[in-house]
Amino acid sequence: MAVPAKIGVIRFSSIGDIVLTMPAVHELKRIYPNSAIHFITKESFRSLVESDPAIKTVHSLDTSGDISSLTQKLTAEKFDLIIDLHDNLRSRAICSKLKVPVKRYKKDRFRRLSYLWFKKREPVTPIWKRYCESFSSHATVPDFSVNLPKQTRLKAVEILGDTPTLVIAPGSTWATKEWPLEKYRELGNLLSNQPFKVAVIGGAKDVEVQKVLSESLGDQLIPLAGTLSITESAAIAAKASLLLTVDTGMMHIGSAFDRPMIVLFGSTVQEFGFFPASSKATIIQRDIGCRPCSHTGKKSCPKHHFRCMKEISSEEIATAILTHFKGKM
């Protein structure tokens, strides 16, 4: 195949998955330095990628989810190659209308289902590498760099200043990935009067975590949940002295910026390929026979006990946090 002059990369969502496409985008630019790379995603996530120097243009799917107008715009671009890193009905429908060569990543559904049903552990290929392998067999050193807008980064500096800060990103789309609310109340009691700040980031539903932490932390707390955009939250995570999070998008943001992290894993596991790539991540999880119960997460525990998260104690997390800050203050 001739060198493609224009390449479209499709990944509609979500935060973590888009961050994990960055090695593929940067590998494409390394292989085809003179090609124009266009990124196709949902409007709500375009700010994560539009400042990346490897990406010439971002095309976004509007909030209605209607692909017709987006497909018309993409058809007019006359792409030479499409890299479909989402591979769902929507992306396949768009690709079928573009009538250009398409390369897709291997989802490895059988192995995933085998692990879910039979708890059969096998060596895993990280998802970033599977993305790269859709078009290249030579990607070995992933470039996870995420380029945030300068003004966004400056805002994070203004908010956090030079004070050492524990940033907590508690939220997930799925309840079985979240640490119970009561655990955060206990954690707040254990962290009060420490010489570091505690910032909470996330959406409106994470305000409840922020509220219970405020009961004991008072002015030590920087309440940011429900007030920031995705990129502003990412910039706060990128400046964290330590990030406490779960298996969610901000985990991958923290990993991309190589921040020290404590990550709590509940219903999901490393074998699905979505573990943080950073060596600075400390993973805390419980080896319970019913894990994993889902590769994405569930709305509630299928066994009704939620041991995978409830058995992670606030004392264990507080000890890990205080150990990190000890000697750094």
What brief labels describe this structure?
six-stranded parallel sheet, Rossmann fold, 2 domains, 329 residues
Question: Quick one: CATH class of the largest domain?
Answer: Alpha Beta
Radius of gyration: 20 Å
Count of discrete structural domains: 2
Strand order of the largest sheet: 8-7-6-9-10-11
- Give the SSE string: EHEEHEHEHHHEHEHEHEHEEHH
> What separation lies between the terminal Cα atoms?
57 Å
| Major β-sheet annotation | 6 strands, parallel
The poorly predicted ranges are none
What's the CATH H-level homologous superfamily of the largest domain? Glycogen Phosphorylase B
The CATH architecture term of the largest domain is 3-Layer(aba) Sandwich
Number of strands: 11
Describe what this molecule looks like in 3D.
The chain is α/β, with parallel strands linked by helices. It has two domains: 6-133, Glycogen Phosphorylase B (Rossmann fold), CATH 3.40.50.2000; 150-325, 3-Layer(aba) Sandwich (Rossmann fold), CATH 3.40.50. It has twelve helices and eleven strands. It has helices at residues 15-31, 68-77, 89-98, 109-118, 127-133, 150-160, 181-191, 207-217, 230-238, 249-256, 307-310, 314-325; strands at 6-10, 36-42, 57-61, 81-84, 102-104, 165-169, 197-200, 221-223, 242-246, 261-264, 281-284. Strands 8-7-6-9-10-11 form a six-stranded parallel sheet, sandwiched between helices. α1 (15-31) packs parallel to α5 and α9 (230-238) crosses α10. The protein is globular, with a radius of gyration of 20 Å. The model has no long low-confidence stretch (mean pLDDT 94).
